[in-house]
Amino acid sequence: LIxxxxxxxxxRSLRALPRSMSRIKQARTRTRTPIGPLCRRRACACAxxxxxxACRRIVVLASSSSSSSQSSPPSQSAAVGVHAxxxxxxxxxxxxxxxxxxxxxxxxxxxxxxxxxxxxxxxPMTKDLLEEHGIFATASLGLADDADISSExxxxxxxxxxxxxxxxxxxASFGGKVLCGVTYSSLRKYDKPLTAKGRDNCVQALKNVxxxxxxxxxxxxxxxxxxxxxxxxxxxxxxxxxxxxVGASNVFVHLDSxxxxxxxxxxxxxxxxxxxKLGYVHIGEAHRGYLGQGQCDxxxxxxxxxxxxxxxxxxxxxxxxxxxxxxxSNTLCVWRDMWEDSEDLAVSAREYIRDRFV
Length: 358
Hints:
- The protein is an alpha/beta fold and 358 residues long.
- It has helices at 2-30, 37-65, 73-76, 93-105, 123-133, 154-173, 196-215, 236-246, 257-263, 267-274, 298-307, 326-331, 342-356, and strands at 80-83, 110-114, 136-143, 178-186, 219-223, 251-256, 278-283, 313-316.
- The longest helix has 29 residues, at 2-30.
- It is globular.
């Protein structure tokens, strides 16, 4: 039965190739008409992406059928996603549709949904849109000053755990299997090192939340961010140690090239330090703009991921005040617009990642 399903999906993908190739020819034909270089680039990029995606799906399906342990192909084949904030700054139905449709059109496997306010995300509506467009979703968040599990104040730590629990429930409501981000502290600049009491509160809360994730068939990520955004996990080694302290098999390290560029000795060393705990990687430039136009050693990162045979999630992340709300832009210190065209940015990033990694 599994072989028959795989073969049927492969045949559907093969039948889609002529249409994709036809779109490429049409895009090339349109380049002879005066429609402008940006439109030509988008048309050709989207057509190439669809054709390559069809080929990649056949390889993924074939490899998944050859191993009975790969019960969830997307999470075992280096699925590539995009952060929803590339498209939308909030999550009304129109905003959700824009992000999900935009991710699908650019040939991403999933969209990463921010859950800074879990109650603002309509789970059933989101699930319907995801199913309609044939992609899945992960979720991420950072904690708040008054809801911080690394606080010495037990009431503040308790509110942080409640926020994480709400995020778990919302993620589960739209079928998400991954919750990641700065799940261990507030997303802000601290004025002193983490205390022993604060770390104890953090570890205990993560144990509880990891159990809740496990009950919902989910995993929990600890995103490593720079010293100006947390005092808990600034390096891959910090996150790996915290994973060990929590001691739950569904807790993993989440790396981000933007932060690695600031804190790590090298991209390769960070991947080595994370080891087999690595489960999620954000790909972002040093200036939060187009990939390849900043100083991040992305080639070194992709080479290290290949060398380690990484097969987890990869998500493109970029922020611009043109899309992101003022409050979040201020929190992330996004003071300028690195881009305005979400679609062009998303397609460019997908091509960049495909050419170098997946």
